[in-house]
Amino acid sequence: MCRYRMGNPKRKSRFICLKCLNINEVGDGIQRANQREKGHVKDLHCISCGCVTKNIEVRHCDWLEEIKDKAEKLHIRYYGKVGC
């Protein structure tokens, strides 16, 4: 039997909400056995916004600043220039 049943805790993913551009606390800490592609977008519930929003994944091997820049571009694509 493997040691990490639900993925390796050192390789957990974090998510940035594309609506409010904050780190999403609900999706924080999802452990993946296999990596998704860079810039993976998924729907998660955001505590800051109070609704289901699009979120971009920040893998353990990604630069946070690079993903934040990409999140700002995707924010305009999904939500326009209107804030949360």
Structural features, described:
With 84 residues, this protein is of the alpha+beta class. 19% of the residues lie in helices and 29% in strands. It is built from one helix and five strands, in the order βββββα. The chain has one helix at residues 64-79, and strands spanning 12-17, 23-24, 30-31, 41-46, 51-58. The mean pLDDT is 84.
Rg of Cα set = 13 Å
Class derived from helix and strand content: alpha+beta
Strand content: 25-35%
Q: What profile does the largest beta sheet have?
A: 5 strands, antiparallel
What's the rounded overall pLDDT mean?
84
Q: Which outline best applies? A: globular
Q: In whole angstroms, how far apart are the ends?
A: 45 Å
Helix content: 10-25%
**Strand elements, count:** 5
Number of helical elements: 1
List unreliable stretches of 5+ residues: none
User: What is the succession of H and E elements?
Assistant: EEEEEH
List keywords for this structure.
1 helix; alpha+beta; 5 strands; 84 residues; 5-stranded antiparallel sheet
Describe, in short, the structure shown.
The chain has one helix spanning 64-79, and strands spanning 12-17, 23-24, 30-31, 41-46, 51-58. With 84 residues, it is an alpha+beta fold.
